Amino acid sequence: MKVNILTDSTADLTKEQMSEHDINVYPLNIYFGEEEYIDGVTINHREFFDKLSTCTELPTTSQIPVGQLRDLFLKFTENGEEVVVITLSSKLSGSYNSALLVRDSLDMDRKSRVHLIDSMSVTLGLCNIVLEACKLRDKGLKGKDIEEEINRIKSKSTLLALIEDYKYLVMGGRLSKATAFIGNTLNIMPVIEITGGEVVPIKKVRGRKKGYQFIIEKARAYGIDTSKAFFMGHIDDEEAFKHFEEYMLNNFDELENIDISPVKNIGAVVGTHAGPHCVGIAFFKK
């Protein structure tokens, strides 16, 4: 029977990827004050960042209503089919726990065909995990086997990024105005990593190039699994990405032996917290 793959819009998959790999995506909701939007449906990336640049309070996000999620689970378990559901990190959202509750509300037969995975990641890292699940499905693995293999390897999915704009970290309460002022004055930027399901600042650097170099050194220390996808991406700043990409290709020799996936535009849900001008990479560690 068919194994369906289901994830949420924070994976930032392109329409081409969804179509090519037969991936089903459910959107999260975004709120600018009282205005409600559906991520990627009633607001696209360009419209979102235009609104973000003028807002005085950060937009908020919410997970899919449980009733809609239940309908999806029922749809993808029709006629004996299975569904592998891969959510963004449970430490960043309640999506995984909601999915557990919905699965447990199903009858025993359908429940046994819903396989839930807490990706412990988001955006490029989540995208990478979803694509690995698709590879396993295409090899003929059943839902339970896909669940077990992804749970085995997901901790190796890594995202490293450089944040240049302190504005949204301050608005979100993740950074004090004083710290942001000092950072902006001295051109100090944080490098973040998604580790253990959380976004963790791991280094402060002075200037873009030192940030780029630190990302290279960190990735080199981990080692890159070349059998899996390698992504470079940005949040609403193609110009900054051009500099980042050029630096990476000229200074990260290991990339010569890696099939680099198409550039990823990181979307609204993550962009809300990191803000524009963020660049980064995602890969699986060896």
From TrEMBL:
It comes from the Bacteria. GO terms for molecular function: lipid binding. Signal peptide: none annotated. Keywords: Lipid-binding. Pfam families: DegV. InterPro entries: DegV (IPR003797), DegV_C (IPR043168), DegV_domain_contain (IPR050270). NCBIfam families: DegV. This is EDD domain protein, DegV family. The lineage of its organism: Bacteria, Bacillati, Bacillota, Clostridia, Eubacteriales.
